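Quick question: who can interpret this fold?

. . .
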Amino acid sequence: MPWRALLGPIHFYSLCEHHALPFYGHAYVGYVAHERIMGLSKLTRLVRLFARRFSVQERVGQEVADTLETMLGAHGVGVYLEANHLCTQMRGVEETSQQTRTT
């Protein structure tokens, strides 16, 4: 049976590339190993690497998933992000309790 890893919550902070305002939240990252495995602390580093730049939440998750698939040749990858966006809290709809979830 293949080895599986799931890690979370991983706290992250990022900047919205559309509004230059922060978004922050938690990531949950998992993969089904094939030939190679990655240390659990590296999953945290990977999420924070892609979050530490101007981006959008969907791209952060996609970059993490693509990197795991490419580097490890994983049989399966899953990335779940849950974040608060200050661009929706401070401007526009001004919704303070809303969270955005992406997979």
